[in-house]
Amino acid sequence: MEALISLIVGVLTACGVYLILRGRTFPLVLGLTLLSYAVNLFLFATGRLAIGLPPIIDRNLAETASGYTDPLPQALVLTAIVIGFAMTAFLIMLALKARAELGNDHVDGRPNIGDDA
Amino acid sequence: MLNLAVTIALGLVSAAFALTLWRLLRGPDQPDRILALDTLYVNAIALLVLLGIHLDSSLYFEAALLIAMMGFVGTVALCKYLLRGDIIE
Amino acid sequence: MLEILLSALILIGALFTFIGSLGLARLGDFYTRLHGPTKATTLGVGSLLIASMIHFSTQGDGVSFHEILVTLFLFITAPVSAHLLSKAALHLRVKSLASVPPRIDEADSGSDNR
Amino acid sequence: MKLRLFPHPVLTPLLALIWLLLANSLAPGQILLGLLLGWAILIFTLRFWPERIRIHRPVTLFRFLLLVLYDILVANLNVAFLILRGPRRLTPAFVTVPLDLRSELGISLFANTISLTPGTVSSWLSPDRRSLVVHGLHVGNPDALAATLKRRYEAPLLQVFEPC
Amino acid sequence: MNPLVIAPVLLPLLAGTLLLLLRGTLSLRVRRGLNLTLVAIQILLAAALLMTVSEGDILIHTLGNWPAPYGIVLVADRLAVWMLLVTAILAWFALLFAVRGTDQGSRHFHPLFQLQLFGLNGAFLTGDLFNLFVFFEILLLASYGLLLHGGGARRTRAGLHFVALNLAGSILFLFAAGTFYGTLGTLNMADLAVKIAAVPPENLGLVRAAGLLLFGVFALKAALIPLHLWLPAAYSSTSAPVAALFAIMTKVGAYCLLRVGTLIFGEDAGPVANLYTGWLLPLALITLIVGALGALSATELRRQIAYLVVVSVGLLLTAFGLGTPAAIGAGLYYLAHATFAAAALFLLADIVAGGRGASLDRLTPGPAIPRAGLIGGLFFVTAVLIAGLPPLSGFLGKFLVLKAALADPAWPWAMGLVLTSGLLGMIALTRSGSLLFLRADGRSGATPASAGDLAPVAGLLALCLALTIWAGPILGLAQAAAEQVLRPQTYIQAVLGPTTRTEHR
Amino acid sequence: MNLFFVILIPFVGAGLTGWMSRFGRTPSAWTAGGVALLALLCLLPSSAAPFHGETLVQRWQWISDIGLDLALRLDGLGLLFALMILGIGLLIILYARYYLSERDSLGLFYAYLLLFMGSMLGIVLSENLILLLMFWELTSLTSFLLIGFWREREDARKGARMALTITGLGGLALLGGFLLLGEMAGSYDLSTILASGDRVRAHPLYTPMLVLILLGAFTKSAQFPFHFWLPHAMAAPTPVSAYLHSATMVKAGVFLMARLFPVLSGTPEWSWLVGGAGLATLLVGAWFALYKHDLKGLLAYSTISHLGLITLLFGIGTPLAAVAGVFHIINHATFKASLFMAAGIIDHECGTRDMRRVNGLWKFMPYTATLAMVAAAAMAGVPLFNGFLSKEMFFAETATFYTEHDWGWLLPLVVVIAGMLAVAYSLRFIHDVFFNGDPIDLPRTPHEPPFWMKAPVGVLVALCLLVGILPMLTVEPILTVAVASVLQTPSPVHNLAIWHGVNLPLLMSIAALIGGLLIYAARRPLFGLAAQLEGRLDAQAMYRWTLGRVIAFAAWITRHLETGSLQRMLLLFVLSVLTLGAAGFVGSGSPLTGIRATLPVDILGVLVTAGIMSAAIGTLALHRRRLTALIVMGALGLLIALIFVQFSAPDLALTQLTVEVVTIVLLLLALYFLPQRSPAESSRATRLRDLGVAALAGAGTAALTWSMLTRPFASISDYFLVNSLPGGGGTNVVNVILVDFRGFDTLGEITVLALAGLGIYAMLRDLRLQGPTQDADGRPWNWDLHPSIMAALTRLLLPLVLLVSMFILLRGHNLPGGGFIAGLIAAVGLIMQYLTNGVEWTHRRLSDNLHPVIGAGLLIALLTGLASLALDYPFLTSAFAHVHWPIVGDFELASAMAFDLGVYLVVVGATLLILIHLGLMHRASHATSLNPLEPR
Question: Where are the transmembrane segments (chain B) (predicted)?
Answer without folding.
Answer: 6-25, 34-53, 59-83
